[in-house]
């Protein structure tokens, strides 16, 4: 693999000030988040279809437009998840051209956070941090724990105390230190800023945030490449802090600039749970001002009441002609079931949000049936089983004999018949 | 994608009888399992490095050596999971050339069963089955439920009543009918044979078994391709029914026959839990006779007491100069932790078995430090969290203030110091 890199640096779009490369996330003049800026002219010979396609089958095939420090050789095969044609789901929702980008099977920890962590830890190592960490609603905790274990770095991870059991176990298993904070994500996040100021620790989503956020671009690159180097008409993306949706746009814009895809007007749609929908509210109110909310939703991985990138996400969505919607917790669970039953993909609550919002947007006529629409599923259903478990009742245990089995199936079919559910057609036996 | 297929048919190695293509698993003369046989000469122009590498990034790139019915266009992007260089785990176990083939992130349901189900359902559809099903210890149930949902087929799945909750939920979520049987896997499996005889249902691991089993070959193809078209010195594979390990060998042999890899003497090592180790016992006793066991192990996905392919697996392992080992349930959990802490990969109990057996084989000197060894991890840790959850205690919830955080970390470090665990070095703060 070529190790050629495109020069990059931190800068503030608002103040215009450059910061070189250092662990810093906020401009000291404009107090707005720093971004990574590339020398895109230098990228032209490095980021071509041919070079990308000859690269490894993971996100590092896009390394020349990611902030990877000179000399760092990434070897964890993160990303390059399936883009699945979703005919069945499309049929149910009313779209003939629907795709699911499925990070529920992302390596190594089954969420898109693996992408951002991979980039952040490459930089953490280059900056010489001995301890890395994060504030997390769960998926990020899993990913930092797993990837820091592999890189041989110590990790200290802060989460809200009421996090789902599977996400807590999936952090502890890697040997990371987990600190449960008596508060919501916004409390945890503020504490992490204090810790990062006080100690020489690399917090992936605090002082390493500009690098971290760039990792999300890999999703945009993959969508375009997997569509045969073209852009979709619409993307539907879940929103927590508001960064992901912006970075997918940045990836598309870079591909257009480099001439790898044709310029196209892509509309961006944001998805939130009603119980934590500050960005969706801002979009609906046509404002960039985020009114913080106290989260109350089962979609805990999206439960950021005061999203750092909210103002920019709101503006960007409106500028592209997109929209944002939110759905109730009941709709979230239905969204999870709908995606599972139609496409065989089991997603966590955030994916339920995205699926249910997509249904809503199609029903509203904001997304047309024939438009190529990509729905981004960001995490796996096995992490939030508690939210759906009570939808199902376990049948009784049946003795292992044919007559007992038949009796049981007929029992179920009797019930099913009364609820108009299709039978298994035991009568078709011979 | 080329849709050219290699002609194939069912036959019995023992009786020599051919059966064409039909839903049948046992030879009526020799009473041994049927196998799929290909016209390998016809495969030569279809299965080349160039054609494979130009194929999709999933197991269908190997379709010309899989039994895919004419006209079936597979579209679910199953397989092509990461092959990870495991330097840290190798260091801990004493191997300098260790790889992990990681089906814990297999699409769509996070286990290698997705591969076999994909091939079985392609055939189920071609044979016209309206209902498909399986007997399962969990992973297979998940995969049949997910993939049949996507294909629009009805599914009826039989499992032992005491299956792990995550595996039950991960079946129900797709809308499949699940029947819990009051018995172990062997009871369930026998009942499924009766049902398959009685009704016109396609049971992937009963009457579709010969096709199903061939799906495992894709792992062997991937390992060889991902190593740069060469074979490893050793593979370590978990054993339940004993089919998987044989099919990986079959894949390697086919690659050698077609000239895609150099001929090499690969040794095959089988891994079981001591609480269900009929094949390992047979290997150790140098016999092909399997003495059935009543399973008692947390590694339920391997808990098949009377393995159908056991005799053949035992013989094959001995013939390659390999070996089989088994480990206690305590070692299984340690194996899970070891893999997570070193490589950031969280596997289910079966992967704990494989990791712990690998450690044992290296310690015994059966696998040498410099040999290229591939360990096959077949499933995800989020499916069997109950087995490891009690290893961890949740710390108390900490108030979101810097002083509270520092107090808590110092508390932990005090405990850690007394157990010689490394600190997080709060003292390094400024």
From TrEMBL, chains A, B:
Protein name: Threonine synthase
Lineage of producing organism: Bacteria, Pseudomonadati, Acidobacteriota, Terriglobia, Terriglobales
Keyword terms of this UniProt record: Lyase, Pyridoxal phosphate
Lineage: superkingdom: Bacteria
Keyword Lyase: yes
Species this chain originates from: Terriglobus roseus
CDD domains: Thr-synth_1
Co-factor requirement: pyridoxal 5'-phosphate
N6-(pyridoxal phosphate)lysine PTM positions: 113
Family, similarity comment: Belongs to the threonine synthase family.
Known EC number: 4.2.3.1
Any one GO molecular-function label of the UniProt entry: threonine synthase activity
The keyword Oxidoreductase appears for this protein: no
InterPro entries: Ser/Thr_Dehydratase (IPR050147), Thr_synthase-like (IPR004450), TrpB-like_PALP (IPR001926), TrpB-like_PALP_sf (IPR036052)
GO biological process terms on file: isoleucine biosynthetic process; L-serine catabolic process; L-threonine catabolic process; threonine biosynthetic process
């Amino acid at each position: 693999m070529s190790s050629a890199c495109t020069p990059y640096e931190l800068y503030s779009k608002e103040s215009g000030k450059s910061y070189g490369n250092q662990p810093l996330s906020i401009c000291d003049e404009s107090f707005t988040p720093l971004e990574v800026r590339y020398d895109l002219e230098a990228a032209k010979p490095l980021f071509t279809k041919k070079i990308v396609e000859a690269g490894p089958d993971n996100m590092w095939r896009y390394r020349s437009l990611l902030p990877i420090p000179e000399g760092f050789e990434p070897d964890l095969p993160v990303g390059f998840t399936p883009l699945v044609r979703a005919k069945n789901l499309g049929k149910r929702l009313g779209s003939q051209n629907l795709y699911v980008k499925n990070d529920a099977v992302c390596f190594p920890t089954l969420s898109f956070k693996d992408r951002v962590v991979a980039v952040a830890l490459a930089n953490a190592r280059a900056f010489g941090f001995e301890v890395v960490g994060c504030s997390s609603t769960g998926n990020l905790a899993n990913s930092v724990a797993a990837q820091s274990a592999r890189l041989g770095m110590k990790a200290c991870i802060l989460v809200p105390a009421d996090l789902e059991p599977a996400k807590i176990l999936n952090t502890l298993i890697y040997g990371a230190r987990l600190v449960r904070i008596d508060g919501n994500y916004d409390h945890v996040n503020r504490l992490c800023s204090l810790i990062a100021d006080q100690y020489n620790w690399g917090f992936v989503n605090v002082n390493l945030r500009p690098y971290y956020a760039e990792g999300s671009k890999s999703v945009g690159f993959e969508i375009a490449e997997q569509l045969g180097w073209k852009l979709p008409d619409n993307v539907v993306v879940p929103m927590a802090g508001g960064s992901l949706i912006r970075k997918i746009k940045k990836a598309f814009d870079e591909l257009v600039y480099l001439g790898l895809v044709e310029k196209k007007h892509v509309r961006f749609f944001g998805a939130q749970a009603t119980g934590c929908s500050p960005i969706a509210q801002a979009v609906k109110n046509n404002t960039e001002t985020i009114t913080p909310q106290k989260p109350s939703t089962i979609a805990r991985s999206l439960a950021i009441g005061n999203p750092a990138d909210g103002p920019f996400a709101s503006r960007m969505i409106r500028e592209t002609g997109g929209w944002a919607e939110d759905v109730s917790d009941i709709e979230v669970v239905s969204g999870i079931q709908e995606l599972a039953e139609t496409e065989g993909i089991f997603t966590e609550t955030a994916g339920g949000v995205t699926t249910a919002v997509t249904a809503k947007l199609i029903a509203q006529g904001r997304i047309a049936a024939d438009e190529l629409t990509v729905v981004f599923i960001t995490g796996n259903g096995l992490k939030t089983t508690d939210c759906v478990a009570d939808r199902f009742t376990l049948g009784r245990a049946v003795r292992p004999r044919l007559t007992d089995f038949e009796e049981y199936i007929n029992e179920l079919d009797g019930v099913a018949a009364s609820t108009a559910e299709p039978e298994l057609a035991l009568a078709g036996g011979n």
